[in-house]
Amino acid sequence: MYSQLIYFVCAILMYSFYQPNETPFFSVQETLLLVLLVMMLFSLVTGIRFSRLAKQSGPVDHAMLESRFTKISTQHTLAALGLFGLMIYGLCLPDFLMKPDIVSVVPSLASFAGILIFLLLMMTVWKFSHKLYCRIYHNPVSLFSFIRSNFAFALPALTFWITINFCSDLLNLVPHEGFHGFITSDHGDVLFFLVFMAMALIAGPAMIQKLWGCKPLEPGPHRNCIESFCNKAEMKFSDVLYWPLFGGKMITAGIMGLAHPFRYILVSPALLRLLTADELEAVMAHEIGHVKKNHMTFYLFFLSGFVIFIYVLIEILTLLVYSLSYSLDDGLGIMAHASTLTHITESACFILGFVLYFRFIFGFFMRNFERQADTYIFTMMENAVHLIHTFEKIAMNSGISSNKPNWHHFSIRERIGFLKACENDKSLVETHDKKLKKSLILFSFVLVFFSLILYSPVWQNHKQQVLSQAFLHDIQGQMEKDPENPALYELSGNVYQELKSYEKAVVAYETALKLSPDNPRILNNFAWLLATCPMPQIRNPEKAVALASKAAGIMPAPEFLDTLAESLFGTGQIQKAMENSAKALEAAKANPMHYGNQMEYYEGQRKKFADKSLRP
């Protein structure tokens, strides 16, 4: 159940982290053709593999068939995720989805269209796995219901993502300049996300149960049993609902919701038909254990931890890739393919990070949370006999092998064995709780440690040095092939300035200006160096004013006006500096889509020039 949600979350993150590529590899027609070709080949291979497995199902024992079915389903789901990543980072799919005019007004439409492609890949897997699923798990659910139920598990994440994107688009359409400037700033982005996230976490379950088509469990013995047992445990909830997924034939129960007004207990009709009142209470003891042990809060913590984990992987692997590239004598053409190299690295990180994090880290904690919830039976009942009987019935009637574990649950046999061991030695319950607590502390420490390291000035400086050296190495190689290209000298000047090699930066900019004397970007960057350089022998505000004036005269962009203001400030022309700073701010406000995140900088510059204590 959890797998579909996690796959779609990873697809969403993969799409969201994409950065536009200025030079896509293929045209719109070629990209569309390649996307269709990939989807057709994926459909063909998926159909062949499930068809072959179905033909082998006669002489193969049930446990072996289920194992192969699970293996193929997982392989093709991961392949769908990998192919989606290839479409995003290899074919630059988001760049083409952003081309229609309506998308410029409502950018979330492009995101929605992108995820629809991943949904089609997943539906391919669900379609070809349907018949075998029905045979293996004794669940004659229709194809439509099977696809809808699989999609339903991912629907909460998709709904949240689509809603937050549409709300963001609507806020960007608000004409008020002050509000628009704030909402597009870093602080505004964070505030908007936190408020929306808080609302979703609290009230989200109310929406989810509607999306899943859940209906209240009617008054009667089953509802009375559940309500009285939960009242005994002093656990508040909003309602008890039928869980109709997979035609209501899946034998399962669950609980969702952090706040009790939006907390729901979910039970499938098949579970209610199968269990006695005592066994139903044992299942409720397990679900109550999840609430009492705050597992849902920890699940949110681990989903947030995935973002940090991916960030760590991207930082380390990107630096490693560029370091290795720089170490090669002939270079790898990094500057020409920098964005592509970054996209490929990020895509690889997502796939690798997904497998490592959810299969091993998150999976470890989920299995042990489930075991902790199992042991809560000893808090609610004298023994675990009814929960053990429940597990035995599920194994007998669901088609699930009692020996089959998965990434988020121990096998039924393992769960029964641990409960029996705890009945003989109750100290095992406390031992397990302590083990889980220590593991959580260790995991939290590792996350915080890596976060602090990667945000530290030492790491950031080292990263900048490595990337700059790699870029510079490649630029120099390209200069040998194209020595009359002013853009290469400009780029080398920018890199030298970042590396604080100011003398070399001056030489590079002067060479660039000789080749292209009216290039406003070169004029601006050289002026900024002369106006702000910490070395007195290089700083030359008067020359900076001349260069910046020429650049702003050719193109009065906010960044060029800001450089002119900085240069004028350095020569003591305060009034003119303030005037040009105000012009830069107004020009930035006129293009909030491009300069929205820089409003605070331009406001700070204006205040700096007006502060008498900072004047030269």
Your description of this structure?
There is one protein chain. The protein has 616 residues and is mainly α. It folds into 3 domains: 2-173, no CATH class; 298-457, no CATH class; 489-614, Alpha Horseshoe (Serine Threonine Protein Phosphatase 5, Tetratricopeptide repeat), CATH 1.25.40. The protein is built from 27 helices and 4 strands. The chain has helices spanning 2-16, 28-55, 62-90, 93-97, 101-105, 108-136, 143-172, 177-183, 186-211, 221-232, 269-274, 277-292, 295-327, 338-375, 377-380, 385-398, 412-424, 427-455, 457-481, 486-498, 502-515, 520-532, 541-554, 558-570, 574-589, 592-595, 599-610, and strands at residues 215-216, 239-242, 253-256, 264-267. Strands 1-2-4-3 form a 4-stranded mixed beta sheet, with helices on both faces. Helix 21 (502-515) packs antiparallel against helix 22 and helix 25 packs antiparallel against helix 27. The radius of gyration is 30 Å and the shape is elongated. The mean pLDDT is 85.
